[in-house]
């Protein structure tokens, strides 16, 4: 039996999310994170000073292109682009801006913005778009002056998100106001100026009280679409009515009521084939008393997270925080609202802040005026196993988080990685994609052109036999229900061990008591002639696999059973193979020394028969005179004949006369015949 195993086993799952457009984050006060290496690293080269909304975009390889707070646009050199001022967003808007690439053109990007007004929200300027052309300004980009601040909606909330469409050839850009969602489709043909409008609960009234900073509360909160593009969540920080402020003239009282009355959290179905939002499901309502701001989906798509603030009305301050909570919902539950699980709560600092999934599959929580971000470390896990840690990701010195984190096209955050194994040459390798998305098709390129037509495959889980040891780059182009993305990884095919033919069985004559000494190096010297390989022996197969309990004396190994299976392992620096062979002891032919001189000198004092005693332990020996008279008999217990008689007429125990005698030895083993001959007694 032969085993082919790996000495070094690596899961070569590339840092290969759908693409790397969300590699860089800039937010808060000069705060930033670089995810391009696969690990979140705080950086301090950003120029944003924003309380809430912001957006960044990198290319598919993770190189920063530009970023914005919805009003100013900075290029990759952290310089404001030409025409990059005066966009119609607002740094106090929850989702001030989102950046969406024009399908089919890697140089054109749309910046969608939503305005806000902290004093009188009715004075906001609504939803706009501006176009950035990366071919301009020496390749660092410029805002196209003829396509700047193009109005789409005269008024909307602070909500904005985007997702790939079902055909994978465009994006939906979505905003919300009152009880309507507006979905705009962007394809290679450009932006459709007519939105798909969906009217669904709840109705969020734009309060018309003349008291400032009251109507804005209900407009705050994020909307997100999951990466699969079939669910949408909307967080409404409050849901007040104009009537509730009748007779109230004190600004602080009015604002405190606006902040403390509770908001709404709703889950919807989203159809990314037509942009329709439907099936409103209340997860939290005003009656629950919480104000909801940040929301995010887990990387595997199973869980939804919401950031909820509970506050007392106060006449001495805008709000009085009771506690903040991170709540998890299981989207696979029959009743999603009933699946709510409290992941974390505290009242250490102001709680309200964005939740945003990073390329490391962690969800980051921004909290007001903190030098760190809090983190949901394992958002794919249920309940408290999601592991929320307060202020566990430190920002750079002099950087401060506020309420917002950058938002992205949600399908950019879709998990997608190649699972493959570094392995030894000669082993057929299996490949698959680890993703939460529904895969339509995959086109594989194994980076092994010498394999001819076998170098490509369209199977979902293919296998490939590489033509030679080496390093190979594997590429998979994956089509999901939402998008098409390309991901790569690198694997190593190590040199396999070289094993020659070897004896499958060693047989050695028994020394007695069912034991013999075996030279196992006869096996190793035949099996391996390479100086770069090692050969070790083991009594158990599992020991050979784990390389423990080696046989330490292979050149003089004493068996444990008459026939026994042993194992040997041939290994090089990275690979090994396991083989088995058999050792057996045999009863070899006896050898008779036919001279007996019992004179006490220690030489031939007894009748020597080599290979008889303790080997043929059932034997019987008979000694006869020249006249055919039996004069002695013995067996394994009596020992060898010493020249005396123990049977017959001459049974005196005395030494017999010099002369020739005859023996018959009955071995009494299967398939053996008696051995007869003469012995000379002197």
UniProtKB/TrEMBL annotation:
<dbReference type="InterPro" id="IPR022409">
    <property type="entry name" value="PKD/Chitinase_dom"/>
</dbReference>
<dbReference type="InterPro" id="IPR013783">
    <property type="entry name" value="Ig-like_fold"/>
</dbReference>
<feature type="domain" description="PKD">
    <location>
        <begin position="431"/>
        <end position="493"/>
    </location>
</feature>
<dbReference type="Pfam" id="PF13585">
    <property type="entry name" value="CHU_C"/>
</dbReference>
<feature type="signal peptide">
    <location>
        <begin position="1"/>
        <end position="18"/>
    </location>
</feature>
<dbReference type="InterPro" id="IPR026341">
    <property type="entry name" value="T9SS_type_B"/>
</dbReference>
<dbReference type="Pfam" id="PF18911">
    <property type="entry name" value="PKD_4"/>
</dbReference>
<dbReference type="InterPro" id="IPR035986">
    <property type="entry name" value="PKD_dom_sf"/>
</dbReference>
<keyword id="KW-0732">Signal</keyword>
<dbReference type="InterPro" id="IPR000601">
    <property type="entry name" value="PKD_dom"/>
</dbReference>
<protein>
    <submittedName>
        <fullName>Gliding motility-associated-like protein</fullName>
    </submittedName>
</protein>
């Amino acid at each position: 039996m032969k085993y082919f195993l790996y000495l070094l086993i690596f899961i070569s799952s590339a840092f290969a999310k759908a693409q790397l457009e969300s590699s860089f984050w800039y937010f808060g006060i000069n705060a930033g994170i670089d995810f391009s290496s696969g690990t979140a690293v705080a950086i301090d080269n950003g120029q944003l000073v924003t309380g809430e909304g912001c957006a960044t975009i990198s290319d598919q390889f993770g190189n920063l292109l530009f970023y914005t707070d919805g009003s100013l646009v900075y290029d990759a050199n952290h310089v404001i682009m030409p025409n990059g001022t005066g966009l119609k967003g607002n740094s106090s808007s929850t989702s001030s801006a989102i950046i969406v690439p024009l399908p089919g053109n890697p140089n054109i990007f749309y910046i969608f913005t939503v305005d806000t007004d902290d004093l009188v929200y009715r004075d906001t300027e609504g939803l706009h778009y501006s176009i950035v052309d990366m071919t301009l300004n020496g390749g660092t980009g410029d805002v196209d002056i003829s396509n700047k601040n193009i109005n789409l909606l005269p008024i909307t909330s602070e909500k904005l998100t985007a997702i790939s469409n079902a055909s994978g050839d465009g994006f939906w850009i979505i905003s919300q106001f009152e009880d309507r969602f507006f979905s705009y489709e962007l394809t290679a043909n450009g932006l459709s100026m007519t939105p798909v409008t969906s009217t669904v609960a709840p109705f969020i009234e734009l309060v018309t009280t003349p008291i400032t900073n009251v109507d804005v509360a209900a407009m705050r909160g994020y909307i997100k679409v999951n990466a699969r593009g079939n669910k949408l969540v909307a967080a409404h920080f409050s849901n007040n009515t104009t009537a509730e402020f009748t007779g109230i003239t004190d600004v602080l009282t009015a604002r405190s009521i606006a902040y403390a009355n509770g908001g709404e959290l709703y889950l919807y179905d989203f159809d990314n084939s037509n942009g329709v939002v439907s099936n409103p499901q209340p997860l939290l309502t005003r009656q629950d008393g919480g104000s909801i701001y940040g929301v995010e989906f887990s990387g595997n798509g199973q869980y939804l997270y919401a950031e909820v603030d509970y506050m007392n009305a106060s006449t001495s301050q805008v709000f009085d925080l009771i506690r903040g909570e991170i709540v998890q919902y299981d989207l696979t539950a029959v009743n999603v609202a009933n699946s709510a699980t409290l992941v974390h709560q505290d009242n250490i600092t102001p709680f309200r802040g964005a939740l945003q999934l990073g390329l490391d599959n962690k969800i980051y929580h921004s909290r007001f005026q903190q030098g760190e971000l809090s983190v949901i470390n394992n958002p794919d896990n249920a309940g408290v196993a999601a592991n929320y840690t307060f202020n566990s990701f430190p920002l750079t010195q002099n950087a401060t988080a506020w309420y917002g984190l950058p938002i992205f096209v949600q399908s950019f955050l879709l998990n997608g990685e190649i699972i493959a194994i570094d392995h030894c040459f000669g082993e057929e390798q299996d490949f698959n994609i680890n993703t939460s998305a529904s895969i339509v098709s995959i086109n594989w390129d194994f980076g092994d052109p010498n394999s001819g037509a076998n170098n490509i495959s369209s199977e979902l889980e293919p296998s490939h036999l590489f033509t030679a040891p080496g390093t190979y780059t594997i590429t998979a182009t994956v089509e999901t229900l939402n998008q098409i993305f390309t991901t790569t990884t690198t694997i190593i095919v190590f040199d396999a061990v070289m094993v020659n033919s070897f004896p499958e069985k060693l047989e050695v004559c028994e020394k007695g008591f069912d034991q013999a000494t075996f030279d196992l190096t006869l096996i190793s010297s035949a099996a391996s002639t390479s100086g770069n390989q090692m050969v070790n022996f083991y009594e158990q197969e599992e020991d050979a696999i784990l390389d423990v309990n080696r046989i330490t004396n292979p050149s003089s190994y004493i068996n444990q059973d008459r026939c026994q299976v042993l194992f040997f392992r041939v290994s090089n620096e990275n690979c090994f193979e396991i083989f088995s062979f058999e050792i057996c002891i045999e009863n070899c032919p006896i050898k008779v020394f036919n001279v007996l001189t019992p004179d006490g000198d220690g030489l031939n004092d007894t009748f020597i028969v080599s290979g008889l005693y303790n080997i043929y332990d059932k034997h019987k020996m008979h000694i006869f005179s020249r006249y055919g008279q039996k004069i002695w008999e013995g067996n394994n217990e009596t020992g060898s004949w010493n020249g005396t008689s123990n049977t017959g007429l001459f049974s005196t125990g005395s030494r017999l006369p010099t002369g020739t005698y005859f023996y018959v030895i009955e071995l009494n083993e299967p398939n053996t015949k008696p051995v007869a001959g003469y012995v000379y007694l002197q």
